[in-house]
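Notes from the pairing session

We agreed to fold both candidates in a single pass and log them together. This is the raw record for the first candidate, unedited. Please don't reformat it; downstream parsing expects exactly this layout.

Candidate A
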Amino acid sequence: MRANITYSVDMQNIPEEVTRIVNNEAHGLSSDLHEIESALRDNNFTEARNRIMSARQALGNADIRLYELDQIMASYIEMVNQGEQQETPSEEPPEEPEIDEGG
């Protein structure tokens, strides 16, 4: 059973937070694969099979997490693009009238 956990971060920290989550997922998957490799090296095939099943579950969870991160990044890109559009004026500001102080 899955539950949603909601927390907020500053918008400028979103890429770093997504990176942290991706690194965490990658570390977990890498660890699972090394455990499979170790069990196979030790000719412990039952343990290898158990580790394979565990890794498959972890891959499914990683897929869900990657989907969630994709949604976060899509929203982040949209916010960044909207911010850039608001900062870029659509028309050039009117020119200041020239004042002739000499005459």
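Candidate B (folded immediately after A)
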Amino acid sequence: MMTKRVKEILSHYPGENAGVLTNLARMMMSGRLAGTGKLVILPVDQGFEHGPGRSFAVNPPAYDPAYHFQLALDAGCNAYAAPLGFLEAGAAEFAGAIPLILKLNNHDVLHDEKDPVSSQTGTVKDALRLGCAAIGYTIYPGSSGSRAMYEQLRDLAQEAKSHGLAVVVWSYPRGSDISKEGETAIDVVAYAAQIAAQLGAHVIKVKAPSAHIELAEAKKAYEKSKVPIETLPQRISHVVQSSFNGKRIVIFSGGATVGDEQLLAEIKGIHEGGGFGSIVGRNSFQRPHDKAVELLGKIMSIYAS
């Protein structure tokens, strides 16, 4: 039975059709965190984005697409997200077992780009054919190619919603005018979350922000308004606030593989700041299966508390 909290979150999307709301509910009512309004999603697009060796050599069973479906199920994740090939390889075998998110665009690192632009690698029809609950799409605010990505996302989101699919947006600031430190600056991450919300995202994925402020005009505004950004929970709260005052689901990237203690400390800060959950890829599938399930269980326990 749908919980009061899930119904409350769905009420923040009054303009959406029943199909979209049903698929959002599917994700929120699945896995160990079902009904809490929190999400822990397993994303495995790194084979395309970073290369198979960098992604899977440390844990060779992860070369197999079926491994990730099973890991997401064993851990009790709310959903599993991947590009077309990985989902096609297991969607039939695992049909109905876990909500799926088809990543519709991807970017490789074989060509060094200061201003990245992803290629569309899947379609809304693919997502429907595979029984997905949602499409996923990455934008790079700050890239010189951002306008094309925004326009493509607009069209794909409109098509997906017309078929009752939810829209999950990875919003990663990157470009020749943004410093490396600026990619996770609080003002830039909050801006990226706002852009994703304005483009129609139901679920927004961003990186956990630092206290750095990248943009000079933003720095003036933050200082004048005394926006609290000293602690991670304060920064998470500000990013959530920047996403329609908490009326959009904002989840945070797990990032590169780190030790358990460091990752769990960050998860606690996200939870304390009102984040809706995490999307944890490398920090899960680059560990042996049992250790990954154990770590994801600890993450879910934090969000359930």
